[in-house]
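Duplicate of #3305? Posting structure anyway:
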């Protein structure tokens, strides 16, 4: 056997709080890789509505999450639609209430505040109640501590935490990180991943190099 079917919504029998997100989320502006899961006692079905906030089509930003990423309960991704225009004297969104207040407002002003796509790499672990702000990139293999507020990029294989989140340490030395990013085991066929689980779980970089 080669592990669960990534198309399964609830891959753990009798434990429906964990769900693979790729088959659960059907939005063109959210891209999620195989085996990435969300854990929530209320169920993972509402991930897109509950955890991805202010994500409006007209802004054009995307949430991209790689493969084999673990998202704990109540993780939040705040998207660019949460931003207010700051060029004038007031940040109040008069235009959204219409009735004359929309006159003279240029919708392109919203797009000018866009910080780009929010990207989470492969094999990332984001802890409970962490908040990821717009336009952030979290690198492959990174860990984000519970209740952190991620306002800037997190390097691959870094451990980050706090408000705002800062790098606490790197998980491995530079040579090992470079090798892991080059090997990119998460992109292998699942049969190959299964054959090499001992090396992946056991931290045997030489075995992974040989397998690659």
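Output from current build:
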């Amino acid at each position: 056997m080669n592990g669960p079917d990534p198309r399964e919504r609830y891959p753990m029998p009798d434990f429906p709080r964990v769900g693979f997100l790729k088959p659960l989320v059907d939005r063109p502006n959210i891209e999620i890789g195989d085996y990435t899961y969300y854990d929530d006692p209320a169920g993972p079905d509402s991930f897109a509505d509950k955890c991805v906030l202010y994500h409006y089509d007209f802004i054009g930003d995307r949430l991209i999450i790689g493969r084999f990423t673990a998202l704990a309960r109540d993780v939040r991704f705040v998207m660019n639609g949460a931003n207010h225009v700051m060029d004038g004297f007031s940040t109040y969104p008069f235009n959204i209430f219409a009735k004359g207040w929309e006159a003279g407002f240029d919708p392109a002003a919203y797009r000018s505040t866009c910080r780009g796509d929010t990207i989470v790499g492969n094999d990332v672990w984001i802890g409970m109640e962490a908040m990821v702000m717009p336009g952030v990139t979290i690198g492959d293999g990174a860990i984000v501590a519970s209740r952190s507020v991620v306002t800037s990029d997190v390097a691959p294989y870094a451990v980050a935490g706090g408000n705002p989140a800062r790098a606490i340490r790197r998980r491995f030395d530079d040579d090992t990180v470079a090798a892991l990013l080059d090997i990119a085991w998460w992109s292998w066929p699942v049969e190959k991943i299964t054959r090499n689980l001992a090396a992946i779980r056991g931290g045997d970089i030489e075995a992974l190099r040989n397998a690659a």
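Confirmed duplicate; merging threads. The chain has two domains: 18-171, 172-212. The mean pLDDT is 95.
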